[in-house]
Fold each of these.
Amino acid sequence: MNSLGSLHPRIGEASLQELAKNFYEEVRKIPELRSLNSEDLEAAERRIYLFLVQVLGGPQTYSEERGHPRLRMRHMQWEIDAKLRSYWMNTMLNALDKVALEQEVREELLNYFTQVTHAMINHD
Ligand code: HEM
């Protein structure tokens, strides 16, 4: 198991729930992101929460409900360029800043989001 996949017990589900909540609270304020999202932001919040629980080594409920994540493929429906990536990343940074996390855990999460957001770019 990589270290990302062992974070779940160190973070705990309450903090991940808080992170997902903060993230979508921020998304509501950013038209560039809000316009891409569905009407049902509560459902969206639950999906990213369950996804994070799974990636960090917790229960696999995300895949039971949604199937294999295939994140890059699922994101192909939006034109994600460097600018949109920055909006997402800054939004997540703001969301992370409001959750009390061990420094090491915060850094692991930041590294992960940095990498995955880069991998999600599908447009110049
Ligand atoms: C790079 C910029 C990104 C953009 C612009 C973006 C945009 C979106 C949008 C618009 C949705 C739909 C939400 C809804 O249903 O209303 C979504 C879903 C989702 N995103 Fe992203 N996203 C990005 C990066 C990421 C990253 C880095 C992750 C994970 C580390 C991620 C994980 C997810 C997940 C798990 C879903 C739900 C997929 C599903 O089950 O349908 N996204 N994203």
Note: The two ends are 34 Å apart (CA to CA).
Amino acid sequence: MRPGPWITRTICLFAAAMGLAGAAEKKPNIILILADDLGYGDLGCYGAKVKTPQIDRLAEDGFRSTDCLVAANVCGPSRAALLTGRYPMRAGHPISRHPLPKYAAYGLAPEELTMAELLKSAGYATRMVGKWHLGFHVEGSHPLDAGFDDYLGLHSNYIKERPDAITLYHNRGVEKAGIAFEEVTKRYTDEVVDFIKGKHDEPFFIYFAHHIAHSPILPGAAFKGASGMKGRAGTYGDFVLELDDSVGRVRAAVEEAGISKDTLIVFLSDNGPARDGSAGPLRGGKYVTMEGGHRVPGIFFWPGRIPAGRVSDAMISSLDLLPLFAGAAGVELPKDRTLDGKNIIDLLAGTTDESPHQFFYYYNGLNLQAVRNERWKLHFPRDISDQPYWAKKGGGPRKPYLSLKQPLLFDLDDDRGEKKNVFARHPETAAGLTKQAERARKEIGDVNVVGSDQRPHGLVDPNEKE
Ligand SMILES: [Ca+2]
């Protein structure tokens, strides 16, 4: 027999009170590990051929989401949303930037409030290690301008032809010019591990943004052959195992420091797989709004609060991390702006199995391409000219529906691979989603619509790269 509503409510209120008491007692350390272009199907615990023992163990000992979404299918806007808890359109960063003149003044808007700034206001030491990609050289958009006390990393993708893109920076200065890509992950991990093992008088927040598994696919010397597979798939497997090893080293450092119970570790990817990775059972990948572009591995480990062994299909997103971290740190959320994320601690802690979200909006650049209401996902008609530059060229199996004449409705509970269009069978569901899209469009915009709560991005011809 299910408990009556008043019993459920009493339990929830009691749990909420306990949660608040817990947060008041001790602010946890928070380690956010972000993989780059790692697909939904690239880890052992998500069905990959190559086992990833460290990340799989983190999932087994914590919470693993099978419905964790990111707010963009490419690096830059996904990171802007992750750090601010706001859709990229709302936060004024819907397009991924390049080291080209067009982007000289385009970075993470200084007026945006990041999770690092919030945690810093709650007394946290805040550090970032890794790839920034949000306008390192743009006035006001450097990691040190976004709430981080200390930064070590490459400011964007590793591109060996560009000296600035192979420079390891420490804060605003050069730590090492011309670093070999194969050294980078070890250097990053050493930095994070040394910091964790150091003395801490205050709680800390570390944002560790890997380059793996983005191109170049170049595993470090110690990982060559580790996957036991040959060819491109083997090299990619070795690369993912280097990431896995790094995650294992971070966790081991936390355990050795004796702070496991007081440390929340979150692992996720910034978008779906590019050429070499796998989206598992999902359709599409990086660059598109199919599930393969937006649904990523999402793992939460906090022995003090999150029970081990939970696997959940409740819809959550990278937008939820800022409210989650703020809640854990006992810091109030800002009241002067709209946040799109929700604190998911009750879901993670097991006091509910329900998602706090009803809707999710799939934007490709500026274009609202799909809306989801729990199990239902409606894709809207679009033309190639509506698409951002990264989607425009070279269609194929990973880029279906670059143009679309008629809407498509998928039932993700029954068809997460988005193959069976059930639009004709569910006209009322489709009509409801269409109305919801209208609301979103009015508020946060669309390719030819400026929303009422949208920070201007300032780019001329935003859909074009140059
Ligand atoms: Ca990426």
Note: The first helix runs from residue 5 to 25.
Amino acid sequence: MQDGLLQNQPLAAHHTFGLQANARFFIEIKHEDELGALLGLPYEPKLILGGGSNIFFTTDYPGLVMKNRILGIDIIDEDEDSLIVQIGGGVVWHDLVLWAVAHNYGGLENLSLIPGTVGAAPIQNIGAYGVEFDSVFHELTAVNIAIGESKVFDKTACKFGYRNSIFKNELKGQYLIIRVKIRLKKRSTNLLWSTVIFVPC
Ligand SMILES: Cc1cc2nc3c(=O)[nH]c(=O)nc-3n(C[C@H](O)[C@H](O)[C@H](O)COP(=O)(O)OP(=O)(O)OC[C@H]3O[C@@H](n4cnc5c(N)ncnc54)[C@H](O)[C@@H]3O)c2cc1C
């Protein structure tokens, strides 16, 4: 049996509603290299799970639940005004927001405290307070869970809409998003200081 593959695993701790249900097979994916061997196995159907905040298990799941635990937040490119950050799909979304705010990188502030993982953010193009995820999106890499092939999706290919994307429509359940790249702004310290100095008393 595949390393880390569990049978009859309770799912209560893996979804927000916490209802008791079991997955016939369950695995946590910590690295994309683990996917190749796993996808060849005949454990059908397969379900991709992030933080479980938008999934409701009411009965046992008859196939394989694949929980995304691929981590990492890395700056991979930058210029004077902005930077490209690559994030593992299993990173908790709010941890990413806290990281950006702590480093004074702008773009994610309105999206704080949205439950779930980075890998799930493109699925419904998460949003709050008038800001949508696609406003910072650069590109993502996802693996086709039927054939194991990875593919890069740019903004056009994702077909983002209001709480919508290609991953909720024609590609529903077909791709596991392993990493996401976003563009954040470098804030001007001078601007912040001048705001503080010229606030009227
Ligand atoms: C209290 C509460 C408040 C919320 N507030 C907001 C809000 O303000 N704005 C907003 O937009 N949403 C909100 N949501 C919805 C939720 O935060 C989002 O849908 C979030 O993106 C779900 O992330 P998750 O990791 O929990 O996904 P899950 O619930 O685990 O999965 C959701 C869907 O995405 C798929 N999926 C998950 N990870 C991947 C992956 N790596 N690759 C491919 N498919 C994947 C799953 O198969 C499933 O179809 C809220 C939910 C709750 C419970």
Note: The domain at 73-186 is CATH 3.30.465.10 (Uridine Diphospho-n-acetylenolpyruvylglucosamine Reductase; domain 3).
Amino acid sequence: MTDIHYAIAAARPGGPDVLQQTELSLPPPAAGEVQIRHRAIGVNFIDCYFRSGLYPWPDPQRLVPGAEAAGEIIAVGPGVTALREGDRVAYTLPNNAYASARNIAAAHVVILPDGLSFETAASVMLKGLTTRYLLKDSYRLQAGEQVLFHAAAGGVGLLAGQWMRVIGVEPVGTAGGPAKCDLALSNGFATMIDYREQDFLEAARALVPEGFHAVYDSVGKDTLLKSLKCLRLHGSLVNFGQSSGAVSDFRIADLAAGSFHLTRPVLFHFTSNRRWLEKASEELFGLILDGRIRVQTQTAPLTSAAQVHADLEGRKTTGSTVLIP
Ligand SMILES: NC(=O)c1ccc[n+]([C@@H]2O[C@H](COP(=O)([O-])OP(=O)(O)OC[C@H]3O[C@@H](n4cnc5c(N)ncnc54)[C@H](OP(=O)(O)O)[C@@H]3O)[C@@H](O)[C@H]2O)c1
């Protein structure tokens, strides 16, 4: 039997208005797959990178964006033994999540603990696991280190501020505008720089003249070269995004100014390791359930995905946004 569901899809790359509601006919799950009825779907900048065409489409004719979601299993394909119909689950994987239901390989799926809502799970599978690898794998933060984190009031930023406090770091953040700075201060950041009002390099140097052990930069084009200048000797720059556009003017020789380390990590290279996925999810869910990380989530109907993209790209959102089918 083939069930009828709906998705939000684009037929060509472009602005948010290319996202349109469309019918989706879903075959039964194949071997090794499960079918999930989505209850909440996270919105992420990577969805905008695919929608706009910055990232190439897996199928040039059609894109269903969306890289994290939570829901319940409604069918199990042959050979799947670890998951059952009715299980509450979540996953993160690029594309195809903006849909009322989907098939997905069971290897990407984790079971949700009791007490973790679908909305919260869909807010943190991508952003929270990203935070985990940023702070513990890409660069291993130590208690007491000096850290600068850009876009501190964003989806990843608010989780990172709180997680850095758990590690024993008192991070400095940047954000655009006083309201975002206040929000970041109540989510773990010790000091904020409003980088719309002041030059963040000048402000960061005044705060930490010896330079930072690590700078986390997801803004890219507008910030990256100055971020390098905020580091102490042997400091690490973790560039994990490009919300302001792709970096084009960086030269390897720029690292010679302080024997700096630079990495450009991608979440899915961590989550493809099943053991890492299980361990990191368990750690993330534990921190949320015991109240050490609070998750700030806005919800919107799945049918309003285009408006949510416009808001995210227009720097209007804070924290996580999830779409409800
Ligand atoms: N590599 C990975 O594995 C990975 C995984 C997850 C996320 N990411 C990246 O992490 C970043 C944060 O993702 P998110 O979904 O949580 O988004 P977000 O931080 O909630 O939103 C992006 C923020 O970037 C800031 N920004 C600065 N310049 C901007 C510009 N010109 N246009 C738009 N925004 C600008 C804005 O905050 P202000 O107004 O405060 O400047 C905006 O709110 C994104 O770059 C994303 O691609 C990477």
Note: The domain at 143-263 is CATH 3.40.50.720 (Rossmann fold).
